[in-house]
Amino acid sequence: MKTLRCRECGRIREFEPAYVCEDCFGPLEVAYDLAAVRHRISRASIASGPNTIWRYHELLPVPAGEPIDLGTGFTPLVQANNLGKALGLDHLYVKNDTLNPTGSFKDRNVAVATNFALSYGFDTLSCSSTGNLAGSVAAYAARAGLRGLVFIPAGLEPGKVGAAGAYGATIVEVDGTYDDVNRLCAELADQYRWAIVNVNLRPFYSEGSKTLAFEVVEQLGWRAPDHIVVPVAAGSLLAKTAKAFQELVGVGLLDQASTRIHAAQAEGCAPVSTAVRQGLDRITPVRANSIAKSLAIGNPADGRYAARAVRASDGWATACPEASVVGGMALLAETEGILSEPAGGVVVAGLRQLVDEGRVRRDETVVICITGSGLKTTELFEPLNGRRLRLAKARASEFVQALAEAEKTPVAVA
Ligand SMILES: Cc1ncc(COP(=O)(O)O)c(C=O)c1O
Ligand SMILES: [Zn+2]
Question: Beta strands of 215-346 (E only): which ranges?
Fold first, then answer.
């Protein structure tokens, strides 16, 4: 029912822990016999499954049986009327993936990779990470009783590094960019039999990303949105969002894959958006320098496939100004009560661009993917403290005066 397929030459091979094609060195991905899965899956069978990603296990590359889990997935799809009003949209939804166990959508990928790693007898769970993946790998390693070993570039947000450490992983900080870290991990993957989830387990790891789109469709009542806005770093979430829609059509759970998929990046690191906007199939690597550190991948592994998926869906790509990212985070927080990290700010700023350019219409159904929690990046909210009162003495009269002063100036909304 499950095989591996080369994304370049299409050659099919046996399902096993492998990630590059022996013929053309192209990346492998998991392929399913959708006609066979069709007989095993239905809206009702999914609805009777757990409230986690495992309700879609028929379309995930994991062995049957009880998975090791932290409760990842089935996060809320929130109708965002306040934010919609601010942006001029009548049917806007936020997929709130900040509510995953370690605060980011990466738990979806790592849940799948961990169970795959366990079934093939790996003893070390590892990754190269821009921050969120490190926390997720560390947490799942703890849960699964595996050694956690995470590689990150120096200078990430302390909240992300601190969390990974709290789960007991060994953190390897490299003086260099994420792309340097990733190169090191590719070298190590040849030397050690470790589950470096986004390197040598990449075909399995990346399948976890499909579950976000599966959930969106189910939560909309088995309907696909007109638009989805996806933050892009390596491009895996976006490429797998397209694969998810296609597979739902393939197993008969969705009539049509007609959603326009939009890529959101920030100007300081926008190799995929640049390729889309310039109509190029090749991604030109950049030296990343962005406030959105989680998206700062200058040489994206799945960039080409992400750009193709955008184009095939008739979507578009945004590269928002760096200065608009924190404003996007603040707008989301102030209108919907959802605290995001910079990736969410990039998505909100990108959506604003799409609306301004007339690419998204008021009456259409739009989903934005808010993929990481702002609780790991609270330092970025410090300058936003529009109303922060400080009383020298705990006296009511002093408070009343301070409040009156503060309320003269409204809190700034981006
Ligand atoms: C919060 C957040 N959103 C989005 C992404 C982008 O995911 P991908 O690398 O699959 O493009 C990342 C990647 O690290 C992330 O941490
Ligand atoms: Zn090949």
Answer: 227-231, 260-266, 317-320
Mean pLDDT of the 282-302 span: 97
Amino acid 1: pLDDT: 86
The whole domain housing 228 covers 77-103+210-381
Q: Are strands 365-370 and 227-231 parallel, antiparallel or unpaired?
A: parallel
Q: Confirm if 93 and 367 have CB atoms less than 8 A apart.
A: yes
CA angle 45, 46, 48 (to 5 degrees): 65
User: Which residues lie near ion ligand 2 (Cβ < 5 Å)?
Assistant: 6, 8-9, 21, 23-24, 26
Instruction: Say yes or no: CB of residue 129 within 6 Å of ligand 1.
Output: no
Give 25-40 pLDDT, tens digit per residue.
Answer: 999 999 999 999 999 9
What Å distances lie between residue 49 and 38, 53, 72, 115, CA to CA? Answer: 16, 9, 13, 18
Say how many Å lie between the CA of residue 294 and the centre of ligand 1.
6
pLDDT at residue 386 is higher than 70: no
Please tell me the pTM assigned to this model.
0.96
What total of structural domains would you count in the chain? Answer: 1
Ligand 2: distance of its center to the CA of 28 in Å?
8
* Each residue's pLDDT tens digit, 78-110: 999 999 999 999 999 999 999 999 999 999 999
The one-letter code for the residue type at 115 is N
**How many alpha carbons lie under 13 Å from residue 82 in its C-beta half-sphere?**
10
Report whether 303 contacts 235 (CB < 8 A).
yes
The rounded distance, in Å, linking the Cα atoms of 19 and 25 is: 9
Query: Ligand 1 within 6 A of 102 CB?
Result: no
- For residue 152, how far is the Cα from the chain centroid? 17
Asked if the structure places residue 412 within a domain, the reply is no
List the beta bridge partners of residue 320.
Answer: 266
For residues 133-148, average pLDDT: 98
Question: Would residue 67 count as lying in a domain?
Answer: no
Structural domain includes residue 120: no
Residue 36 maps to a domain? no
Question: What integer pLDDT is reported at residue 387 of this predicted model?
Answer: 74
Lowest mean pLDDT among 60-64, 99-103, 247-251, 289-293: 60-64
Decide whether any atom of ligand 1 lies within 6 Å of the 208 Cβ.
no
Whether residue 264 has its Cβ less than 6 Å from ligand 1: no
Q: Is the pLDDT of residue 414 over 50?
A: no
Phi then psi for residue 156, to 5 deg, are -75, 170
Q: What's the CATH code of the domain at 357? A: 3.40.50.1100
